[in-house]
Amino acid sequence: MAKNGKSGKSSKKGKKAQPNPVDLAEARRLEVTAGFKLAEVDPDSTPGLSDRSVGEELFVARDAELAELQERMYAQARADVPNAPSVLVILQGMDASGKGGIVRHVFGSVDPQGLQIASFKRPTEEELAHDFLWRIRKQVPKPGFIGIFDRSHYEDVLVQRVRGMAPPEEIERRYDAIIDFERELVESGTRVVKIMLHVGRDEQAKRLLERIDRPDKHWKYNEGDIDERELWDEYAEAYQIALERTSTPEAPWWCIPANKKWYARLIVKAILLETLRGMDLEWPEASFDPEVERARLAAS
Amino acid sequence: MAKNGKSGKSSKKGKKAQPNPVDLAEARRLEVTAGFKLAEVDPDSTPGLSDRSVGEELFVARDAELAELQERMYAQARADVPNAPSVLVILQGMDASGKGGIVRHVFGSVDPQGLQIASFKRPTEEELAHDFLWRIRKQVPKPGFIGIFDRSHYEDVLVQRVRGMAPPEEIERRYDAIIDFERELVESGTRVVKIMLHVGRDEQAKRLLERIDRPDKHWKYNEGDIDERELWDEYAEAYQIALERTSTPEAPWWCIPANKKWYARLIVKAILLETLRGMDLEWPEASFDPEVERARLAAS
């Protein structure tokens, strides 16, 4: 986020530069850089935004800008602008960390026609017979789209590591394969935004209990969630390694404290807004001569 | 809609039965039945809803119900309920009749994770080499989803008829093929809602001019739009035939006056709401024993 000068991307466009509701200089510390320690991120904290109501108010006020930037990006692809850009938002986190809520509440304010949502479950037999990126590549966003991955290729170095589903040397290979894959995406015009929703162990228990107790939440509960929960420390280690090894300047990880749902949603929306602002999105040029078309229309 | 007793579907559930903001007894006349004449539908009219502000206010108040019904449907599929239902909304209309705005404004209030949007452009060579329903079948909504077709298989009896892109006997065959295809969908648990946005000739000119004039709308303009516009009467005839022949009790057409965008959006949302209300959507049963899981969670 351009504000504190740390980023290469700059939101030059003066026209729309109202302040982001979030103090991004502060929130930027959530970006994973050298020396990152997951254990030091407090899932209860709300860096850059102490007052929920002020944040939400300013947040809603930015919806129109977010929607317009998304439409500009979409318009470029529709108008066949060469190398029209796209955005890929990768969401990771333990069960009940709030991934679904992010999709619903953050992306609910942009045109659903411009979204391409992919949810990655346990791989099928066919998927397992291919390289781990095979099923992922098929779902990368089309030009002009905001792609959202609800879980992703990171499962292949998270659950697969924790559960020993692949040999250590294969897991090892995957970190570099992921970096190469994401670099390829970035080079072909996709901004890659990686979000880890960092929920605390007690907060997860509370949320799982709600899913067990409430009939309108039963469908979100899976008996396997507790098996995973029992491997909490192993997952924490796998996340620490994955984030450390794959957070690159062109495709950085953000580790977002997620015990407060409102906070996680606000921050992710702020990151999305800054990402789009940094893309210099213009309306595409007319591919026709307005004078000629006005005359044709009048005569029709 | 159940209210005036004309429909077989009834929104039995008492629990959520707040009035629909739209007078559906009146709006129901927009459903295409025997004797329908497109020429008699005034695109400027607003049947069932004279006061825009009252309608919009009540409309927003129904957003939560709409979102919940959609979530119930989605939950059924996620919980592997056998024969989980889905909804398919088919949008047709001349250029600039407001199809995109419907997707954005009507479906913008439900969870984007439960939407499956398909936009049908001019068919590719590969698509043309297959039966006209080949590309359509691939996009029918998965169980639990609301599918939206922005244009559809009806193009194959509209533009293809008007432009003579297929022989008359093939066009003729397609009406029945469409009826069979849609019946098949309905029998497998998909509610089919067909919306024709009826824009007037002058209003279309106004909207096309805006696309020619405004840089933020250029991308929506296509020089071919005027070629189609010049065949207005031929299209009106093709629509008349298509709507007349393919509006069935299980998959009826709605012909919606569309000169007033707010009106078309409100009506489509009302139809969607009534459709979901009529589906008896319950939260799926727990697939686990809450007592057991509570204990497992506590021990974890």
From TrEMBL, chains A, B:
Short name of one Pfam family: PPK2
Keywords linked to the UniProt accession: Kinase, Transferase
Gene3D superfamilies (UniProt xref): P-loop containing nucleotide triphosphate hydrolases
Domain (Polyphosphate kinase-2-related) ranges: 61-280
A Gene Ontology molecular function term of the record: kinase activity
Record-linked InterPro entries: P-loop_NTPase, PPK2-rel_1, PPK2-related
Highest taxon listed in the record's lineage: Bacteria
Region Disordered: start-end pairs: 1-26
Biological processes annotated in GO: polyphosphate metabolic process
Protein name in UniProt: Polyphosphate kinase 2 family protein
